[in-house]
Structure formats: structure tokens, C-alpha cells
UniProtKB/TrEMBL annotation:
Alphabetical UniProt keywords: Transferase
A GO molecular-function annotation: UDP-glucosyltransferase activity
Name of protein: Glycosyltransferase
Stored Gene3D superfamilies: Glycogen Phosphorylase B
Transferase recorded as keyword: yes
Family classification: Belongs to the UDP-glycosyltransferase family.
Length: 512
């Protein structure tokens, strides 16, 4: 029996959640985890996204069907060609140019017609209409869908509560912050209003509060839609940033629930390894190699789904890893995508040079599972929030190498507040930190890579304190997701909130 065939009698009191993720790997993955976690709390879930994105999570869909999980995966037509995007570019990481991102984001509302058409189809399995809509905050168009169904609309936020609070404060105080960074000799000013005040740069202000009229208009549309939401789910946990949650709730004047780290959702190893999409490496070979390494000796190097390094930077990074003398796993997606000329030839030769000590993964890697292996002791990361959470959940220290958007603020949280990482020393540049048409661009030289790896994996007394702190954060993360933990309670509070709304407005909703 497939997950879509689960029968629901009229007497069933299970809640039905409609989930709509942003089409980008860093947003899709935690929403899939949330869907399965909701079913573990005895709820029904409809997960709606585009065909390309459903195909990417096919292993998860098949596993859900095999386990008869009450999840319906619904295909929504996303007419990208109609707005000038290439055929098949249904996820941000598939866009051939960063210049197309705003077009992509503005096109998200085109999903509405397909979703509403689906909701009008009588359900043969007897599923009730949705009791709650949970959408990524970028899906501002879901406001009207929730209103038409007369159900709560909750926002799912992928970033940390720390970033959300920074974003909120920067937008509120944009003018004065612009003046402060312009007047400062070093281009930095202190962002007030945080439990742990931090220094921010001109680029932080302009990234989160852009001057470009089109970007500003889009951001304002998102902000207005978010203000109308009934509550906010955050992929973080209370023990990690208690004061940030307290301040953000005060600022928003609405419920804000911690529900993470969602990467700790319990499941079989093979299923966990397929989070996001199928692994590009034979997992048996990968874990046989890891099993041969000493505990805590391996460095994982991975930069997420969007970041692209130049050929020159790949060479410097590779030679720095080789010179460090440490065993490592390096995820080099640039090779599989064939968008960096010469990468395959060079990586093949490099692979021979480090045979036995270094493992190269071309494409998608089962990152969360790798980080959970006892052999892995350090993580060189782009500071995407999912990656940071996966490292925190497994007690692994990080070397922070941010590239764009929230990643520079995430770095400050890891290094300055949590004190569980070391900074590579990257300076923020353009809007997305992506160098255009400059294959010679190098931000970190091989000597710096070697130095950072040694500091991360060694570091003397300070290094040991970081590792102890990381292990404690890992223990707290796991406790948060266990039954009775802060995030377990957070999700249960979400369910109770929706149940109360259902009882209050039962019979008023529009059927489909």
C-alpha cells in the first residue's frame, strides 16, 4: 500500500498538515524531515512541490510508501519557461546564473493555481481537508490559500533564530545602521538589541536590506506576508539560543516554536543517507573507508548545494588539504556539474596523489551521516544553517568559510557566541559572494587552508575547549529531539495549537 492510499475514516481525529517548501535543497531537506516527524506525532501530511523536486527526493517517497507513512506527495506544475527561466530549473541550485534568482522567487506564486486545483479534487481515501498550512516564508502567496480554507498558516524558517533576529533588527534600523557603517573607519558597527551584540558590516546591512528597488519590493512582500502568519517554526533548539528565541518572540508578538535539529529525525541509515537526493558514492565503500580511520581524525569539506568554487580555488584547497597531513573527505560537486573547466582532470590526478588518506565525492554526499561517524572530527563548511545544525547535532567542530547571505552571520554565531568553530577569515563581497567569470579568483590560499585545518583538528588547549563545547551542544541537540525535549515539546505545541483552532472553528472551513 502506498502512502497516498492510507484510508482515513470519518471518525479519525488525526490532524492534516499541508506543507509547501521553497524549492532549494537547503529548504527542501528540513521540510521533508518535518513531514515525517509530523507523522510520528500521529498526523497526516500533504507535501506539495514541483516535479523536479519530487524526483530528487524519490528515495524518500519510495520509503514512505513502503512504510505506509500517511504522507501524500503532490506534484505542482511550476511553469518556469513562462517567466523566462530554462526548462527544468525548478530549484535555486539548478539556475545557471545568480541573476535569475529574483525572477525565480517572483515566479513562486505560479504554484498557486496548481495547488488550488488539487485541493478541489475529491479525495477518494477519505482524507479530511487540511487543518493547517505550513509554508516556507518565501511562499507569500499561501496567505490567500490558507484564508480560503479558513485554517492557520504557519511559517517555516530554515535559518537560526539568531539570524532571524538580526534580519529583523537590521531592517528596522536600516537608516541608522547605514550611517553608522559609513562613518566607521573600519566599516563595521555594533548591532544593538541582540542578547549577544555583534559587529556587522556595510555588506550585512545591504544584503538583508537591499538598495535595489526590485529586491526591496520582494523583501517587503515577504515581510508583510510573514506578519500575517499565525506562528513561526524554527529549525533550531531552545538550549542552543534561548535568549534569541525570547527576544524574537517579543519582537514578533506571536508563537515561535523550536522544532530542530530536524536532521536528527530517527530513521534507517540508508534513508538518512538519501536526504535531499541519492548519494553520489557507494555508501558501503564510503563507510568502509571511514571505519578504517582513527576516531576524530577525519576532516569533512563540503560547501552545500549552491556554492561554486573556481578552478583556482579548488586547486588551492586541494593542496592545502594534502599539506595538512590529515585524512579527509572532500565533496566536489563542481566536477559532476561540469561547470568548472578542467576540474575533472585535475581532481582525478589529485585523487591519485592522496589515495588512502583522502576521499573525493563527486556530487551529492550523505553529509549528515558522514558527520555522525566517529571518525569525523572536523568540518570545513560554507555555514549554511542545515550544515551547521548537522555538525552541532553530532558534536563536530567547524572551520567557517561563508560565501553569501545568512552564512556570514551564522559564522559569528558559531565562532563568537557558541565558540565551537574557527573562522577561515573570508571577507564578504558581493550580494551572493559568487565570482562571475573569474576562474582565477582565490579567496583562501593553500597555506591558509593548511593552517585552518591544523587549528581545527589540533589547536592546543583552545582547540580542546572547542571540542568539549561542541560535544555538549551535540548532547543538548539530541536531548531536545527526544520525547519530552524542548523541540519535541515545540512540535507538540504546534499540533496542540492547530487542534485548538480546529475545535474552535470546526464546521466553518470550506470543503474540497
Amino acid at each position: 500500500m502506498s502512502s497516498e492510499d492510507v484510508q482515513c475514516s470519518s471518525k479519525t481525529k488525526r490532524l492534516h498538515f499541508l506543507l509547501i517548501p521553497l524549492m532549494e535543497q537547503g529548504h527542501m531537506i528540513p521540510m521533508v524531515d518535518l513531514a515525517r516527524l509530523l507523522t510520528a506525532h500521529d498526523s497526516l501530511v500533504t507535501f506539495a512541490t514541483s516535479p523536479v523536486n519530487l524526483n530528487r527526493i524519490r528515495p524518500i517517497i519510495d520509503q514512505a510508501a513502503a512504510s505506509s507513512l500517511p504522507i501524500r506527495f503532490v506534484e505542482l506544475r511550476f511553469p518556469v519557461v513562462d517567466v523566462g527561466l530554462p526548462e527544468g530549473c525548478e530549484s535555486i541550485d539548478l539556475l545557471p546564473s545568480v541573476d535569475l534568482i529574483l525572477i525565480f522567487m517572483n515566479a513562486l506564486s505560479l504554484l498557486r493555481n496548481s495547488l488550488e486545483a488539487y485541493l478541489r479534487i475529491p479525495n477518494k481515501a477519505g482524507w479530511p481537508k487540511p487543518d493547517c498550512l505550513i509554508s516556507d516564508n518565501h511562499h507569500h502567496w499561501t496567505v490567500d490559500v490558507a484564508r480560503s480554507l479558513n485554517i492557520p498558516r504557519l511559517i517555516f524558517h530554515g535559518p537560526s533564530c539568531f539570524f532571524l533576529l538580526c534580519d529583523h533588527l537590521i531592517n528596522r534600523h536600516r537608516a541608522e545602521l547605514e550611517a553608522a557603517v559609513a562613518a566607521a573607519s573600519d566599516g563595521f558597527t555594533v548591532l544593538q538589541g541582540l542578547p549577544h551584540p555583534i559587529r556587522i558590516s556595510k555588506q550585512d546591512v545591504f544584503t538583508l536590506s537591499p538598495l535595489d528597488p526590485d529586491k526591496s519590493k520582494y523583501k517587503e512582500t515577504i515581510r508583510v506576508a510573514e506578519e500575517s502568519a499565525d506562528g513561526v517554526l524554527v529549525n533550531s533548539f531552545m538550549e542552543l539560543e534561548p535568549k534569541n528565541f525570547e527576544r524574537y518572540r517579543e519582537e514578533k508578538s506571536k508563537p515561535v516554536w523550536p522544532v530542530g535539529p530536524l536532521s536528527l529525525y530517527k530513521e534507517d541509515l540508508d534513508v538518512k543517507a538519501a536526504r535531499g537526493r541519492a548519494s553520489s558514492i557507494d555508501n558501503k565503500i564510503l563507510f568502509q573507508w571511514l571505519d578504517r580511520q582513527e576516531v576524530g581524525s577525519v576532516v569533512l569539506v563540503s560547501f552545500g548545494s549552491i556554492v561554486r568554487n573556481t578552478m583556482a580555488q579548488l586547486i588551492e584547497l586541494g593542496h592545502g588539504l594534502e599539506a595538512s597531513g590529515r585524512p579527509f573527505i572532500w565533496v566536489v560537486k563542481e566536477v559532476m556539474e561540469e561547470n568548472v573547466p578542467g576540474a575533472e582532470v585535475w581532481i582525478t590526478e589529485f585523487e591519485k596523489m592522496v589515495e588512502g588518506r583522502g576521499m573525493i565525492i563527486r556530487g551529492w554526499a550523505p553529509q549528515a551521516v558522514i558527520l555522525g561517524h566517529v571518525a569525523v572530527g572536523g568540518f570545513v563548511t560554507h555555514c549554511g544553517w542545515n550544515s551547521i545544525l548537522e555538525a552541532l547535532a553530532t558534536g563536530v567542530v567547524m572551520a567557517t568559510w561563508p560565501h553569501f547571505y545568512d552564512q556570514f552571520l551564522n559564522e559569528r554565531l558559531v565562532v563568537e557566541v557558541l565558540k565551537s568553530g574557527v573562522a577561515v577569515g573570508i571577507e564578504q563581497t558581493d550580494y551572493l559572494g559568487v565570482e562571475k567569470h573569474n576562474e582565477a579568483k582565490v579567496k583562501v590560499r593553500r597555506e591558509e587552508v593548511e593552517r585552518v585545518v591544523e587549528n581545527l583538528m589540533g589547536g592546543g588547549e583552545a582547540g580542546e575547549e572547542r571540542r568539549q563545547r561542541a560535544r555538549e551542544l551535540g548532547r543538548q541537540a539530541r536531548a531536545a529531539m527526544e520525547e519530552g525535549g524542548s523541540s519535541w515539546k515545540g512540535l507538540q505545541d504546534v499540533i496542540n495549537y492547530v487542534s485548538e483552532h480546529q475545535r474552535k472553528y470546526q464546521g466553518e472551513n470550506i470543503s474540497y
